[in-house]
Design goal:
7 helices; 27% helix; 2 domains; elongated; alpha/beta; Cobalt-precorrin-4 Transmethylase, domain 1; Methyltransferase, Cobalt-precorrin-4 Transmethylase, Domain 2; five-stranded mixed beta sheet; five-stranded parallel beta sheet
């Protein structure tokens, strides 16, 4: 019987946010892949682990070797269907059966933290990429959400949106470390968010 890749979404990171099905797969895994923090939080004694770093070629080799022995569980933050390793895994292991277990997206969690609906919002990412120009255009009533990185943090994004005609008084919120003890949320106008330091890997919600 061929072994499978199991891609498990771990949500924003806190264990209470992980679906029981994903937690069961993680706990029963012989081979477990994930970011360093995820492995520190979820890996158990006796599991063989591999941390996700920038060296994806080495990761592919490790997974391929592990798949010869047993199923491999890959933990991804948020939901696997939203800017995760899933497309890369499907390309690298096109002949391997892949099971995907959903997780709570950090964007979804961020909206819940501020008590707002994400219905009708456009979810985009500045994390290691830049969204298409037309997606950033200002339209009355438009709602946006962004994954951020250290270069394209909420302050940078707020500035870029104002350059494209978004009113300075547009309400927004930045959320980082969602579900952890140091969760931090700042609400304000785009003008105020544009002065906000930090929040390198976070979520920015813009309420048009």
């Amino acid at each position: 019987m061929a072994h499978r890749l199991i891609v498990a979404g771990i949500g924003p990171g806190g264990k209470e946010y992980v679906l029981p099905k994903a937690m069961q797969a993680i706990r029963s895994a012989r081979y477990l892949v994930g970011g360093r923090r995820a492995l520190a939080d979820f890996a158990s004694d006796g599991q063989e682990t591999c941390a996700v770093t920038g060296k994806l070629s080495l990761l592919a080799e490790w997974i391929a070797s592990a798949l010869e022995q047993a199923d491999v569980v890959v933990m991804v933050s948020g939901d696997p269907g939203f800017y995760s390793l899933l497309p890369w895994l499907k390309k690298q292991f096109s002949r391997t059966e892949i099971e995907v277990i959903p997780g709570i997206s950090s964007v979804q969690a961020a909206y819940c933290c501020i008590g707002e609906s994400w219905q009708g919002a456009e979810w985009l990412s500045f994390h290691g990429r830049v969204p298409p120009e037309d997606k950033l255009a200002c339209t009355p009533g438009k709602k946006l959400a962004f994954l951020t990185d250290h270069e394209h943090n909420p302050a940078y994004i707020a500035g870029e949106l104002m350059k494209r005609g978004w009113p300075a008084e547009t309400q927004a919120a930045a959320a980082e470390h969602i579900s952890y003890e140091n969760q931090h949320i700042v609400r304000g106008t785009l003008e105020e968010i544009a002065q906000l330091p930090g929040f390198g890997e976070s979520v920015l919600v813009v309420m048009g």
